[in-house]
């Protein structure tokens, strides 16, 4: 069976960084080649920015650097933008996911990785 192909939401990545997190399995499975992670330049920059904000610049550099070494992290180019995500009118950032959608995402992600 071919490996699962995913695009990891930034919030999901942030929650899985700490070794004490219940979601550390997400990164552990990446290290074990359990799935393929697809990223673009924009996603990589967002990962790096948010990790540096929450943890440290050094942590961001280490994690992003590790991603570049893993054969199951695939960097892809975006050839078109569908503009399906609207900017938040208040701060011009992407609208946040609703809690229910976040819980659903995590439930599906963990149940898939546990198989």
Describe this entry's structure for a reader.
The protein has five helices and three strands; from the N terminus they run βααβααβα. With 115 residues, it is mainly alpha-helical. Strands 1-2-3 form a three-stranded parallel β-sheet. Helix 3 runs antiparallel to helix 4 (57-69). The longest helix is centred in the C-terminal third of the chain and has 15 residues, at 99-113.
Summarize the structure.
By secondary structure, this protein is mainly alpha-helical. It has helices at residues 10-17, 25-31, 41-54, 57-69, 99-113, and strands at residues 4-6, 35-39, 73-75.
In the residues, how many domains can be counted?
A: 1
* Uncertain spans: none
Widest β-sheet, arrangement of strands: 1-2-3
Characterize the overall form: globular
Number of strands: 3
Mean pLDDT: 82
* End-to-end distance: 13 Å
- The portion of residues forming beta strands comes to 5-15%
The assembly state of the depicted protein chains is single chain
Main sheet specs: 3 strands, parallel
Number of helices: 5
Q: Could you name the CATH topology?
A: Rossmann fold
What is the N-to-C order of secondary-structure elements (H for helix, E for strand)? Answer: EHHEHHEH
Helix content: 40-55%
């Amino acid at each position: 069976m071919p490996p699962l192909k995913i695009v990891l939401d930034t919030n999901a990545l942030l929650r899985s960084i700490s070794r004490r997190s219940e979601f550390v399995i997400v990164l552990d499975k990446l290290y074990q080649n359990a799935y393929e992670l697809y990223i673009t330049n924009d996603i990589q920059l967002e990962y790096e920015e948010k990790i540096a904000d929450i943890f440290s610049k050094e942590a961001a550099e280490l994690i992003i650097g590790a991603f570049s070494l893993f054969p199951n992290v695939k960097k892809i180019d975006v050839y078109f933008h569908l503009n399906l995500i609207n900017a938040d009118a208040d701060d011009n950032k992407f609208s946040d996911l609703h809690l229910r959608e976040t819980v659903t995402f995590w439930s599906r992600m963990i149940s898939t990785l546990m198989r």
